[in-house]
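Why TOG domain-containing protein? Reviewers of the renewal asked for a concrete example.
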Amino acid sequence: MALRPIDNALPTTPERPKKQAKLSIPIQTQKKPSDFGVNEEKKASPLPPPPPPADASVDYVSSEKLKPFEDPESKIQGLVEGLESKDWVKVCESLNDVRRFSLHHSTALLPILEKVMLILVKAMNNPRSALCKTSIMAASDIFNAFGEKLLDFTDSGAFDRLLLQLLLKASQDKKFVCEEADKSLKSMVNTIAPLPLLNKLSGYVNHGNLRVRAKAAVSISNSVFQNGCG
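Here is what the prediction returned.
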């Protein structure tokens, strides 16, 4: 009897079909009309700020060209309000009005002069060069008009603050501001007696800023020479 191969004798089992990997397809849901623009607004980058407006041109008027007011009594009523305006061009115009009052109507300006001086100090600290220079020019006209009367404002320290700002502005790098501050300091020296002025200036010869020390020393020297106290 012939023997059959063992492989043929075993029953064969059919091969199971291989399982195919299932693919998951995301279901897209339609956005509601109210959903549109919400995420887009969050993702959108903020718009750059608008460019600052260009500075309007400001004319620097010499003292000789400033005319008196036709009605100074009514003009003085709104002077402080104009100086405290948020519109810097309006402030410049009001600073020139201060100069006109100093030159032609000093009696009308005197009752509010102390407050005006404090506003001048604030204007000198403004980053706009036009405001800074115009306020320094106003200080020069105030020195020429009132002289030693400015030393009477001791309660607010208006004169001391004004003097410090002029020394600082005369010490900075902006040439046209520095030159204007030097002119104002010379007006101060020419209109205030040496002894009271030296008492004011002596406090700045030891100032932390070396340039301020130098400017104070120059003003002291000019005061002594101008008034023949050498």
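The radius of gyration is 40 Å. This is the kind of structural detail the renewal will allow us to pursue systematically.
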